[in-house]
Design brief:
homodimer; 207 residues; mainly alpha
Amino acid sequence: MLTQKPVTTFLDELASSAPAPGGGSVAALSGALGAALISMVCNLTVGKKKYADVQEDIEALLEKSEALRKELTDLLEEDVKAYTAYSKAAKMPRETDEQKAERTKVMQAALKGATDVPLRIAEAAVKVMDLCMPAAEKGNAWAVSDAGVAVLMAEAALRSAALNVLINLGSLKDKEFVAEKRAKLDSLLKGRGAMRDVIYDLVVEKL
Amino acid sequence: MLTQKPVTTFLDELASSAPAPGGGSVAALSGALGAALISMVCNLTVGKKKYADVQEDIEALLEKSEALRKELTDLLEEDVKAYTAYSKAAKMPRETDEQKAERTKVMQAALKGATDVPLRIAEAAVKVMDLCMPAAEKGNAWAVSDAGVAVLMAEAALRSAALNVLINLGSLKDKEFVAEKRAKLDSLLKGRGAMRDVIYDLVVEKL
């Protein structure tokens, strides 16, 4: 499991020419870092007298951020698996027409898997973004910069995942699948750049 | 060393209420991830016949991205150290006037250290951003989305580092130091949001 390896080893494997991990895994990790920062803000707020009024909200936030952190850590591993399946398919024999047809079929199926994983990363990243404004507004003021870093990491995760969806859609032949996934991606991206700026500016004001 | 721990342990410690790691460490890690992705693009281009014309440029890029990856990994550890020093200073006794004065002096010095580290992270992140356009233009076209993810991570690193500089500047009493560092930070941030958009759009066009 890649996420069980030391941070430096993860970076070494990322920097290498090995097919995985790549940008998709970084998207998932970036989202998980954002979720972990929201959890940190919540953990610095839970049980504090000064924040007695918001304890229930903070506990609900923490439950969501921890679930998203787990989901994004799992998606990091799934991205590696999906990419490995595609790499393997690409190496299938293509000498006869039958082999070529079979290879194309397996590759197209693998590409759909390699598209779905970053799309799920994008969905989870959007959910992390939704936790950042309440964390910045209600969480321990002393950790407000961490809520700001969280939104930066979550939005970078979303956009990074988008690039990985788009690169795969470009090679897919199933036009209906492509149209459906592109529409889904567009709806996830909509307004999120502006949302990042709004939360960043709010955090800077509070510093 | 935090970077020697498994990725999941890093995330666990980040999510906890422990003072470090926090947003500053995430800024450094995000920059290191961006640098590693540039190295990956270069490693997928080096020695490839199709890219014979750009071999020298790519090797020069790779040397820079690897140096920045190392620098940002080291800065992650330094951020934890600087924050720990500040935390320790804050716990100094403050019963007598002498103790109060001594504590303030040590805390102000620690805050300067805790400001300089994210400022160095911001500087390194800007240098990673400068490698992204040439990597996207000259590197293996097959890995262009990774150059796109690199610029997203590097810009998120820059902005995250900025939040960590700003939060410390707010508590510093040395007005000259504050003005100098703020000017430095402003010059680092200038035009970088637009640069991210330009490179992202170029990458999307190439997908």
